[in-house]
Write a structure and sequence with these properties.
Blueprint: H1 6-66, H2 70-101
Length: about 110
Amino acid sequence: MQIVEPFTVLAAFNVALTLLGALGAWGLKQMSANLRDLKTSIAKCDTDVQAARHEVSDVRLYIAERYVRTDDYKAALDAIFNALRRIEDDLKDKQDKALRFRPATGFGDLGKGT
């Protein structure tokens, strides 16, 4: 059995350590490149999200300007129909008063309540 010289063991250790260091450096370089790509992708996604938010805001504004909510529409229609009913009632009252207070003679059929 031969005795291994300390210099050879030290040289083998240095070679192994150098290879391990080179492998670690390569791994760190790859992670750095991936991290840089990831940051670029995130920045692009942020830009896309901001653009989408702007578009959604524009759509909301368009809808708010052009369309009426259903409950607001129903409330407005109810108010219109109530006003029309009041007008109709007032016209009926005026018609009844006009028919009641017309003279019964002198104008032919106009004085008779129809």
